[in-house]
Every structure is written in C-alpha cells, then in structure tokens.
C-alpha cells in the first residue's frame, strides 16, 4: 500500500519536472528549428514548433561569411579558457585560506572582500585604470579585470568548510603542508563544488559582452558575444554579416531576420554547451561520502 | 590552535601572533594574488570614483564640482520612484523567489529515476546559457497578443491581452522569467550541498522509520541551512541591482515607469548621455547602501542563527 | 633652451602656413596623413575601403592636394558608447570622427571638436550642397557635417494594394486624417491585411506625417505667453484621439509598443500590415528594394503625402544640429587637410565616387551613357547620403533612385517646415528624461484606451509639469525670446 502511494507521488513529481523541462527545451528547439528552416517558410513559424520547415543552411552561411566571426570565436575560447583557469586558481586557493577558521585577520579580510563585491566602481573609473596599466585592446584587460568574483569565492569557501576538519588535522599530523592539503585533500574532496565554480565562471566569461565590447577595441581582438549582441540588440545587420555582405545578398530581402538571429544564438551557445558532460560527471551523489567515512 | 607544536611553547600574545602569522605564511601567500587583484582592479578604480565630485574633462585635470552631481540625483523627479522600483523588484526576485530554488533542488534529489533526474537537470540549466536578449525575445513572443499564452486563454473565451504592456503584470513577469532562467542554475549550490550529505544519515533515518517528508525535514534541510543563509545574504548585495540586462531587454513605454531601476537609469543618463560624473555618483550611492545592507544583515544573522557570510 | 624651442616652433609654423597658402596640401613625397574613424567602415570589415582611399588620394593629388588617407579600425563594440569614451579618455586619436545619436554633444562642450564654420564658408564645393537647414544647424552647432535629405518620416504603402482601394483618389485629392482613416478602414474591411498600420517604438514615424495635421508645428510653442512643449498641447491631444480611434477599430497593430524594428518590417513585407512610416531617402530605398524583392515589382512603394489639417507639412525638421555626421577633432594637426577631404568628396568627382563607385565595377559607360551594374546594389555611400552634386559627363541611363525613393525626397523638400527647439542643458537632463518617460507611458495608455483621454488629460499634464515641465518653463522663459 505504502509502496504504491510512493510511486504515485513519484509519477506526479516526474510529470511536474517534465512539464518544467518542456517550457525550457521547447523554445530552444524552436530556435534551432527555425534557424535551419527554409527562410521563405520559416517566417510564419509559431513559437511552439520544434520541427524545421525544410532544411537550409543559408542563415549559417550568412553568419560565417563575416570575416571577423571565426577569429572572434577563437578569441572567445582563448579568453574563456585562460580566464576561467585564472578564476578557479585564485578563487580556490583564496577560499582554502579563508576557510581556515583560525586564520588571523580573517574578519578584516572578509569585510574588505565584501566591500569589494558591493562597490562597483562603474565603467569610467575602471576604464581609466585599465588604460593606465596599458591593457587596453589586449585580451588581458578582460581576463584580469574579472579575475575573482567574491560571490563565487564565498560559495567556494562553503564547499571547503564542508570537508571534515578531522581530515585536515590528520594530514597536519602526517606533516603535510597547506599546499599539499589543498591539492591532495580539499580539491579532490570538494570536486563537485570546484566543478560548480568552474562552470559558473566559464559561463560568465563566455557570455560577457560588456567589458569585451568596451576594452577590446579592434575587430581582430573582439569576441563572439560582442558581435552577436550588436546584431541581436541593435539590429545592426552590418555587424553580423559585414557591411559589404549586407547588400550583396540578392536574396537578402527574403531572409527571415528572426531566423538569422536564431542562428547566431545557436552559434553562441553550442561551444559552452560542450562543458555539460564534463560537469555532470561530478554530480553523482556520494562523491564525498566515501572519503569522509575513512 | 590545533597545531600541537605551537601549543607547546606559551609566549606573549604579540609573539604568539607573530608565530601564528609565520606558521600560516603559506595561507597568506595563497590569498595574496586575490588581494593584489582587488587592490589593483577594485581599490584603484574606487579611488577614481572621486570623479563623482568632479567635472570630467577630457585629457585634462578634472574640475572640482563639490556635491553638484549628488544634488542632481536627489533633485531628479524620478529618483524616488526608481529606487522604489528597484527595491520591489529585488524583493520579489531575491526573497519571494528564493525558496523556489531550494525546493527545486530538494525535488530533484527526491526523483528516483536517475536518468530522468539527470535529464531534468541538464535541461534546467539551459536557459542560463542564453543571454537576456534572447530570453526577452522568447517571452515577449510568448506573451504578446498572438503568443502561446493568449492562444491558450482564448480556448476559455478570453480576449487577447498583451501581458508585456500590463503595468500590473510586468513585475510578476520579470520574477517568473528570472525564476525560469535560474531554476536549475541557482539550485546547483543547494543540490551539491544535498548530495554531499553523508549517506549514513539517510540510512539511520531509514532505520528509524522516517518517511520522505521527515527525512527532508530532519536530514536535508539542516544541511541546506548554511548555503541558504550564505546565498540569502549575498543576494542582499545585489539588492540594488535588480537585473539590469533583464529590464533593459524586457521594458517598453507602457511599463517603464514601474520597472525602471537604478542601473537602467545610470546607463541611460550616464553612458548614453555621456554624464560620467553623474553615473559615478549614483554608483557610489549604490555601493554605500549595499555595503550597509549586507554587513548589518550579516551581523544580525550571526547573532540570531550563528551563521553569516563568514 | 626654451627660447630655442620656441623659435623653432615659430619657424615651423610660418613655414607650414606659407607652404599651405602657396600651394595645395602636402607634397607628392610628403602627403599629409589624415585618419578617419567611421561606424561600419574599416579595412577589416570593408575590403573595398583601401581602393576608395587610393581613389580619393589620387583624385586630390590631381588638384595639387596630397593626403595620405587612412580609415582606422572601428571598435567592434557598440559604436556610440565606445567611441565617445575612448575619445574623451584619449584612448583614440583620429582627425575625422563620425557621430550619431547626439553623443558628440558632451565632446563639443569640452571643446574637443573643431568649429567648422569658416571651413564651410570658404569651401569650394561643399557649400554648394548646403541647404537652408544645414546653414541654420551650422550656426547653432558648428561641429558636424552631414549632407542628406531632411530627416523626415513619411507614410509608405505598397502600390499594388493602394491601387485597389476606392478611397485612394479621395485621399490623394485631400489627405485629411479622415481620408487616411478611410484608406486604413478599407484595407481592413476588404480583408487585404490584418492591421493596416504598424510601427515600432520610434514615435517619429507617425509624428513625421501626422503632427502638422493636428496642429503640432514645432517642438516648442508659445501658449498664453508661455513656452510649452508640443507634448502637452491640444494638438497632441487630438493626435492621441485619432490614434486611439485607429487602435479601437483594429486598424493599428496592437503590438506596436513591443515591436522591434525587425518585427515591424517583417509585418510590412509579409503583408500583416500595409502602411508604415519610413525615413525619406536611403531607408526608403531599402524598404522599396526589399518590398519588391519579396512581393514583385508591382509592390513598389507609393509615398503618401503628409496628412493635412489647417496646414500640410511633414513634422518640423530639427535645425539645432545635424542629426549625425562627421566632426574634425580640435586636437588634429591637419584640420585643413581633413576638411579638404570633405570638400573633395563634394566635388563632382567625389560625388561620383561616393554614389557610383568605380567604373568597370559598379558602373560602365555605354554609348555615352552611364549604366549602373548589379554590383551597385552592394555599394553604399561612405560619406554623404545626398544624391545631389552629381555632374556626369555621361548622363545616367536610368535614374539612381526609383520613383518612389525620389518622390520621398522631393516631398520632404516640398512639405518642409523648420522646428523651434532648444538643446537640453546638462542641469536639466534628468528632468528631460523624466518628462519623456511620462509622455511615453501616457502615449501608450491613451492610444490603447487604458486611460480615457478627456478624463485623464489634466492628470497627464500635471504629471508632466511635476516631472520637469515646470523646471523647464523657468529655463525657457530665460532663454527664449
């Protein structure tokens, strides 16, 4: 009797979850479907259709005919990879130090960090610093300006604090130094947490358009999001397909703008989706349990 | 304190401090890059925020302007309204919406079918990878007079309504939309906390004959208390932000008066109109209010529940 | 030491000046370097630009002016945000910079832009293309150069549909709002399209052809001895009532507030709607071309005249400053050479290059006639939009603009009136922003009937005044005659 009731609630739960998932996946499939449909027929597609109407690569041809697009994807990847590695390295090592309960001046440092988090100096004061450091129009400007996020740093501290103190003490008694404890105990034990932080940073890096748009002045240095955003937000067709291509498409009048935008969205999210399998690996329960029980 | 070597040699407090600092030098070294980063890329710009008291001059020394820009802000006919909007929207997003992410994480954990759970998880992260322009496009399309929502209500004989232009609906739409976008993502923190729970606790509860609700109440929720407190207080730090990108992309003439927030205002006046000093002055006000808000909540929380941000 | 440097400087200056006076600019082996920063135009995204640089240099050299022209790489981010910031912080240096959306205002205030009055007055070709409104703008704000038809929006409809209408003749004979209403009504009643009139959130589109018919003849008018903004005059009230009627009867696209420019265009090309407000000249050309490409030649646009009330005209044209254009930076050391480039581009040769491109590519000369090729469709003017000043030895075989586009330009000249307005001073920027927001919100509420126009009009005016109308009234009293 009890078992049956449980399975009913399980079915109900599953149904609710599937419904929620549908609201998320349908719009995306719609975007994908519309971007690969034949332009003449895609314009009248409703937001709920998830099957393409015919197949055409025109939208993608137009996007990739922009000479700046491919380099910008490479730039985005470079900034995301290097930037995220720096993010994670700084954040985890600082979080480890700050998760030591007896660290002197911890309180003062925390207050300092909180103030750093809350005081957004704004564009112009930051711009002047980047300029003074000679970082303008280099990828380092974007990478360094957002090297640590206090919000993620504190989340990371929580993960490290969840590692049992007994392990730390045991390692100390074994004569291990902080670096070894950090690398051999904390990082592996909190790997679900570190993976989470990694993913958080990577997505923010990949999606950032504001700072790259301001600091990376030349089109050879710019990132994918800057170009896509110019197109999607300002409807600046010239930026996505190149001014000279804009007029050269005899059939351009027939191009479905929404579908073209959808294609740019697809191009922008596919690379970051590749992170998925990597991160999900860490999300099996009991990752830490085994180690903790010794 | 747990260091046995140290405890063996009692010293004066000052000498003990020094010894402790020396013993922990590696820790400070690990902290150093982060601190240096903040000093260069945050403290220095914050010093530059003195621009709020100066007239910006291109390539020349700035001219002292006193409280001029602060006075402009307070004299602005909209400032009160914009501040109120910001606080209301933040309250909806960071307080009303807050439990939803926790509940979602718990429900995920309750799912028996691992494959289905993983699928739901994967899917629920998807919206977070979309930029706000795209999300706004999807929602506006769904909610306008010919959109899916109106197609549904038409079945019940309702006349079509463009919800995006409804002053009473728009803030709820912002909240729902934020929830939709962050449901999976913001529950990650709680979910990782849940899966970190020692299996033996579940087993013990099982042996005691606890049902699912009791397990949630006595095993899962306690494990979530710390991340919840942390996230809640950290969110307070964003209380004056309320979601610039979202509002910018979802606003329209009809509803702008109820969702115009500080950041959209700063962008409009500051960057688009080139009033750099004015924008900086507003940023400074935001920073001060935010810091006070978070630090007081932290202290109160520490007193009441024993846990805060640190 | 200081003295020596001073002397050297003086000598250089005198030498430089006399050299410039005596002959043209620069010398064959030492051309003067001139740099340009322009939106969407740089070698990286526009390979054609190197050829254009060479052509301009050669053309100017033939007149004895030696310049070395270079388009700088334009930033990839949002041009109007990034460029002013980069210029004001000294990150960018350029001799000529293109601006739009009024972002040059702060730079002008800081003295970063060169006063071009004397240059224009002494120009050989450029001033010939100057219209009255250009001269007034130069007086008011002497920092921007722009040659284009007046910045006017006009109603446009696809011809194949317009020709079917019984109400067509009556409207063309007497384009009153009532007859315009009849046209829209017929489009709807005959089932030709769903929402005959559409727009996006750009209010100028309707203002352009409606304002004057409802008695809105300038941005500022004197009512009972007091200067007030058009937004709170009876004319605006009448305009709201008219739009409200269109909305109630389903003649106006109900999603007009949330439409972006692309959804508006899409509704237009695909036939959900039949009439939109388009900017005369180049933009109308794009609409016309796309409409024809989508629905065939017969769908070419008909340009409707502005609506007629007591007077008939397009909305008053702003003469405070050029709506966009090129500035020469005050810090530039080669201002003369920079301006010479503009003047050259206004000469017959320059106009030919700007409008027609290169012989053998964008056009050919056949039997003494200039025949444009298909490739001209890919060409656009890098400098000035105007199609005037073109004096070809071999006349064009067919006009450059289609009848529709030319009609839009001609009508904008025919129905031209000048605006009365002021530039918003910095201390009133937040008030102006607040007033605009109040207006925008009531615009929507009144047009869609959320609020009743007669009942709520006074509330609206009171709110307008509280949000800055009163503050402006005091200011206007001091600056307006």
- Name the structural class of chain A: mainly alpha
CATH superfamily of the largest domain in chain C: Periplasmic binding protein-like II
- Average the pLDDT over all residues of chain C and give the rounded result: 90
Number of helices of chain C: 18
- Count up the helices of chain A: 18
Order of helices and strands of chain C: HEHEHEHHHEHHHHEEHHEHEEHHEEHHH
Tell me the strand percentage band of chain A. Answer: under 5%
What percentage of the residues of chain C does DSSP assign to strands (E)? 5-15%
CATH secondary-structure class of the largest domain in chain C: Alpha Beta
Give unreliable regions of chain C as ranges.
15-22
Return the CATH topology of the largest domain in chain C: D-Maltodextrin-Binding Protein, domain 2
Major sheet characteristics of chain C: 4 strands, mixed
Order of strands across the biggest sheet of chain C? 2-1-3-9
Mean pLDDT reading of chain A:
82
Describe this structure in words.
- The complex is a heterotrimer of chains A (294), B (310) and C (481).
- By secondary structure, chain A is an all-alpha fold.
- Helices cover 71% and strands 0% of the residues of chain A.
- Chain A contains 18 helices and no strands.
- Chain B has 2 domains: 4-50, no CATH class; 67-305, MetI-like fold.
- Chain B has helices at residues 4-8, 13-23, 25-48, 68-75, 79-96, 98-110, 114-125, 132-143, 148-155, 170-195, 199-207, 212-236, 244-250, 256-259, 262-272, 276-305; strands at residues 54-55, 63-64.
- Chain C folds into 2 domains: 24-149 and 324-378, Periplasmic binding protein-like II (D-Maltodextrin-Binding Protein, domain 2), CATH 3.40.190.10; 153-316, Periplasmic binding protein-like II (D-Maltodextrin-Binding Protein, domain 2, 3-Layer(aba) Sandwich), CATH 3.40.190.
- Chain C has helices spanning 2-22, 48-62, 79-88, 104-109, 117-121, 132-140, 159-162, 168-173, 177-189, 204-210, 234-248, 261-270, 282-295, 335-346, 348-356, 403-414, 429-447, 453-479, and strands spanning 32-37, 67-71, 96-100, 153-158, 220-223, 226-229, 275-279, 301-303, 324-328, 363-366, 369-372.
- In chain C, helix 14 (335-346) crosses helix 15 (348-356) and helix 17 runs antiparallel to helix 18.
- Chain C is globular and about 75 Å long.
- The chains are: A mainly alpha (294), B mainly alpha (310), C alpha+beta (481).
- At the A-B interface, helix 1, helix 4, helix 5, helix 6 and helix 8 of A face helix 2, helix 3, helix 6, helix 7 and helix 8 of B.
């Amino acid at each position: 009797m009890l078992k049956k009731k449980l399975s009913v609630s399980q079915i109900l739960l599953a149904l609710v979850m599937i419904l929620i998932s549908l609201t998320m996946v349908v719009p995306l499939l719609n975007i994908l479907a519309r971007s690969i449909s034949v332009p003449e027929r895609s314009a009248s597609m409703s937001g709920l259709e998830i099957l393409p109407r015919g197949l055409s690569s025109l939208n993608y041809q137009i996007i990739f005919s922009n000479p700046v697009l491919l380099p910008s994807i490479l730039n985005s990847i470079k900034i995301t990879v290097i930037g995220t590695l720096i993010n994670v390295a700084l954040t985890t090592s600082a979080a480890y130090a700050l998760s030591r309960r007896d660290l002197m001046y911890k309180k003062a440092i925390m207050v300092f960090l909180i103030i750093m988090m809350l005081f957004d100096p704004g564009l112009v004061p930051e711009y002047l610093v980047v300029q003074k450091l000679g970082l303008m129009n280099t990828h380092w400007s974007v990478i360094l300006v957002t090297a640590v996020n206090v919000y993620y740093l504190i989340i990371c501290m929580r993960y490290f604090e969840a590692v049992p103190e007994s392990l730390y003490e045991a390692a100390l008694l074994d004569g291990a130094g902080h670096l070894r404890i950090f690398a051999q105990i904390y990082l592996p034990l909190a790997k679900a947490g570190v993976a989470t932080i990694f993913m958080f940073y990577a997505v923010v890096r990949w999606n950032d358009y504001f700072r790259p748009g301001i600091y990376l002045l030349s089109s050879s240095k710019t990132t994918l999001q800057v170009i896509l955003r110019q197109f999607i937000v300002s409807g600046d067709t010239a930026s996505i397909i190149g001014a000279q291509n804009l007029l050269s498409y005899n059939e351009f009048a027939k191009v479905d703008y929404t579908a073209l935008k959808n294609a740019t969205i697809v191009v922008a999210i596919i690379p970051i989706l590749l992170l998925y399998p990597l991160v999900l690996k860490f999300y099996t329960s009991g990752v830490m349990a085994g180690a903790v029980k010794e | 304190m747990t260091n046995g070597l140290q405890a063996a040699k009692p010293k004066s407090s000052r000498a003990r401090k020094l010894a402790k600092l020396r013993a922990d030098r590696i820790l400070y070294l690990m902290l150093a890059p982060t601190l240096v980063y903040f000093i260069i890329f945050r403290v220095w710009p914050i010093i530059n925020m003195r621009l709020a008291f100066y007239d910006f001059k291109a390539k020349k020394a700035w001219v002292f302007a006193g409280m001029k820009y602060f006075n402009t802000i307070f004299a602005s006919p909209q400032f009160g309204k914009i501040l109120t909007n910001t606080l209301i929207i933040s309250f909806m997003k960071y307080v009303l919406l807050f439990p939803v992410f926790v509940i979602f994480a718990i429900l995920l954990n309750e799912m028996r079918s691992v494959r289905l759970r993983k699928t739901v998880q994967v899917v629920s992260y998807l919206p977070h990878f979309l930029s706000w322009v795209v999300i706004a496009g999807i929602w506006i399309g769904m909610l306008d007079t010919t959109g899916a929502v109106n197609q549904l209500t038409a079945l019940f004989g309702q006349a079509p309504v463009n919800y995006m232009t409804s002053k009473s609906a728009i803030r709820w739409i912002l909240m729902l939309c934020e929830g939709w976008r962050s449901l999976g993502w913001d529950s990650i923190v709680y979910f990782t906390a849940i899966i970190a729970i020692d299996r033996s606790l579940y087993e013990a509860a099982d042996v005691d004959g606890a049902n699912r609700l009791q397990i949630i109440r006595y095993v899962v929720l306690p494990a979530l208390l710390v991340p919840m407190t942390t996230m809640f207080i950290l969110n307070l730090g964003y209380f004056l932000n309320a979601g610039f990108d979202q509002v910018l992309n979802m606003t329209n003439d009809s509803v702008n008066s109820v969702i115009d927030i500080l950041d959209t205002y700063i962008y409009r006046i500051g960057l688009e109109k080139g009033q750099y000093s004015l924008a900086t002055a507003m940023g400074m006000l935001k920073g001060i209010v935010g810091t006070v808000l978070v630090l007081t909540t932290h202290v109160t929380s520490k007193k009441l529940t024993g846990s805060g941000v640190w | 030491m200081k003295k020596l440097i001073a002397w050297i400087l003086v000598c250089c200056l005198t030498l430089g000046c006399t050299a410039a006076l005596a002959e043209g600019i620069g010398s064959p082996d030492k051309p003067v370097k001139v740099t340009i920063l322009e939106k969407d135009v740089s070698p990286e995204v526009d390979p054609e630009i190197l050829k254009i640089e060479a052509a301009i240099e050669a053309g100017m050299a033939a007149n004895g002016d030696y310049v070395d022209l270079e388009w700088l790489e334009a930033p990839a981010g949002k041009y109007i945000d990034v460029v002013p910031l980069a210029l004001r912080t000294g990150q960018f240096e350029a001799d000529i910079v293109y601006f739009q959306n009024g972002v040059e205002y702060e730079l002008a205030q800081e003295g970063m832009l060169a006063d071009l009055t004397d240059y224009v007055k002494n120009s050989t070709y450029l001033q010939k293309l100057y219209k009255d409104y250009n001269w007034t703008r130069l007086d008011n704000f002497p920092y921007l150069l722009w040659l284009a038809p007046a910045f006017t929006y006009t109603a446009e409809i696809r011809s194949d549909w317009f020709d079917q209408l019984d109400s067509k003749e009556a409207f063309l004979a007497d384009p009153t709002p009532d007859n315009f209403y009849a046209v829209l009504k017929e489009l709807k009643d005959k089932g030709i399209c769903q929402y005959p009139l559409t727009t996006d959130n750009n209010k100028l589109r309707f203002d352009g052809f409606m304002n004057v018919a409802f008695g809105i003849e300038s941005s500022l008018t004197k009512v009972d001895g007091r200067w007030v903004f058009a937004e709170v005059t009876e004319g605006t009230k009448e305009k709201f009532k008219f739009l409200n009627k269109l909305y109630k009867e389903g003649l106006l696209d109900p999603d007009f507030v949330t439409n972006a420019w692309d959804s508006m265009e899409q509704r237009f090309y695909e036939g959900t709607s039949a009439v939109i407000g388009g900017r005369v000249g180049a933009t109308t050309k794009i609409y016309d071309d796309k409409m024809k490409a989508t629905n065939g030649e017969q769908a070419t646009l008909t340009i409707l005249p502005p609506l007629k009330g007591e007077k008939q005209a397009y909305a008053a044209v702003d003469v405070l400053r050029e709506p966009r254009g090129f500035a020469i930076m005050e810090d530039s050391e080669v201002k003369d050479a920079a301006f010479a480039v503009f003047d050259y581009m206004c000469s017959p040769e320059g106009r030919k290059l700007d409008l027609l491109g290169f012989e053998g590519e964008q056009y050919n000369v056949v039997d003494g006639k200039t025949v444009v090729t298909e490739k001209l469709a890919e060409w656009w003017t890098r400098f000035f939009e105007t199609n005037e000043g073109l004096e070809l030895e071999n006349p064009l075989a067919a006009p450059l603009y289609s009848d529709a586009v030319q009609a839009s330009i001609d009508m904008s000249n025919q129905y031209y009136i000048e605006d009365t307005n002021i530039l918003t001073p910095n201390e009133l920027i937040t008030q102006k922003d607040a007033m605009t927001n109040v207006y925008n919100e009531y615009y929507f509420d009144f047009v869609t009937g959320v609020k009743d126009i007669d009942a709520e009009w006074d509330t609206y005016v009171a709110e307008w005044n509280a949000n800055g109308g009163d503050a402006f009234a005091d200011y206007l009293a001091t600056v307006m005659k």
